[in-house]
Amino acid sequence: MMGEEELIKLFPEFSDSIQPSGIDLALDEILIQKSEGSLIDNEKNIPKIQSLKGPIYTLKPHTAYLATIDKKIKIPKGYSMLYLPRSTLLRSFVSVQTAVGDPGFYGTLTFLIVNHGDFEYKLKKGDRIAQAVIFPVKGSGEYNGFYQEK
Ligand SMILES: O=c1ccn([C@H]2C[C@H](O)[C@@H](COP(=O)(O)OP(=O)(O)OP(=O)(O)O)O2)c(=O)[nH]1
Question: Suppose 31 and one of 11, 19, 49, 108 were both cysteines; which one would form an S-S bond, judging by CB atoms 3.0 to 4.6 Å apart?
Fold first, then answer.
């Protein structure tokens, strides 16, 4: 796992958000699902989504949303990332569910955020919701998939 000194060099645009063992990630928008979706024979039909009005978002009980991160990220070749939830959210019955950040990815990170609680939970744009932890990857190629932005 990469530490503070190395992370500042690798991610200068996140210099204000570097932690001893990762990078803090802050909320941009919360989005709700507006249509069905499917994944059949690797054919993606991603559900339509709609932004909620911010900057304070109310997560309804037992409801899933998408959350976008406020700064686009470029993952350098040779590194990969995992995203872990901020524990304050877990202590509040809210999970942040995430996948792997690939070497070479550039774009907006999107996470699933679920309020598992029986009560509403309020979250403000700009608040930290997750932390990225970064690992070197030996012999990696570069991501150039569906979610890559130019
Ligand atoms: O929770 C996550 C994890 C990763 N990413 C970004 C970075 C990652 O490099 C990219 C693609 O993720 P993944 O490879 O998991 O997506 P896929 O469904 O396999 O897409 P593709 O078919 O383009 O490979 O999305 C997110 O936005 N959210």
Answer: 49
Q: Is the Cβ atom of 140 under 6 angstroms away from ligand 1?
A: no
R_g over Cα of the chain? 16
Is 110's C-beta closer than 6 angstroms to any atom of ligand 1? Answer: yes
Secondary structure E strands in the chain: 18-19, 22-33, 38-40, 43-45, 49-51, 56-59, 63-69, 73-74, 79-85, 94-97, 100-101, 106-107, 110-115, 121-124, 128-136
Q: How far apart are CA 57 and CA 88, in angstroms?
A: 16
* pLDDT tens, residue by residue, 64-97: 999 999 999 999 999 999 999 999 999 999 999 9
Domain map (residue ranges) of the chain: 23-34+48-136
In this prediction, what percent of the chain has a pLDDT beyond 90?
96
46 lines ligand 1 (CB under 6 A): no
